[in-house]
Amino acid sequence: LIRRIVLSTTYRQSSIATGESRERDPENIYLGRGTADRLSAEMIRDNALSLSGLLVNKSGGPSVKPYEVAVSFKPTNPGKGDDLYRRSVYTWWKRTGPAPVMMTLNASKRDVCRVRREVTSSPLQAFVLLNGPQFMEASRVMAANLLRKYGDSPDKIISEVFRAFTSRTARPEEHQVLRTLYEEQIAHYKAHPELAKGFLGLGAAPEAKDLPSHQVAATSILVNTIMNLDEAVSKR
User: Fold this and answer.
1) Is the pTM of this model over 0.90?
2) In angstroms, rounded to a whole number, what is the distance separating the alpha carbons of residues 104 and 179?
3) What DSSP line would sit under 109-149, residue for residue?
4) Which of 34, 77, 80, 122 is the most buried (most CB within 10 A)?
5) CA distance 33 to 18
6) pLDDT, tens digit (0-9, with 9 covering 90-100), for 5-45
7) Cβ contacts of residue 76 below 8 Å, gap of 6+?
């Protein structure tokens, strides 16, 4: 059923619509255009872990405590090993206080029933994606995997990361901006190797000691930048 829905002409419509169309049917009741929704908090986190290769797909079992839960609900220790990378549905949760990262990305409290989650857009959401330990760790692990796959070939890395997060190929001008970012970060971390080493120690995943630290750090920033794009956290 799901396959039939997503392959249908109706589902695959563009979310771009005329002002007249939106005025006549603001809720898209008649399915005259595609949806344009931001992914849920759980989907955003799970997508980052999945693309990095960290996501653990084990089903069932007790709740687990990723980094942000341990920091916010004290005294609580973070999980270890696979517990840090379980799907978000298994995250330990207080009924009146979701995990802070989930709350920032509009997850609802569970003390009352909500028919629909509120969807907001705030600087804090970008702050979480650019600085949250789970997202930074996913970025560096994905960066290391890509460097092992493509070596010193930033164009191939940019193409794969962009396609993975946005489901489309980067336009030439977008590709050039990202290539410039990568080159700037390479120069920066070459000049400040101590910053690269500190950055690559973030998270519990093993550090990629078989790769040059400045390359891993620069590629991690590239991955994390693309991860923070609107297209990477939205369904259109």
Assistant:
1) no
2) 30
3) PSSS--SS------HHHHHHHHH-HHHHHHHHHHHHHHHHH
4) 34
5) 10
6) 989 999 888 888 888 888 899 888 998 888 888 899 999 99
7) 65, 69, 70, 92
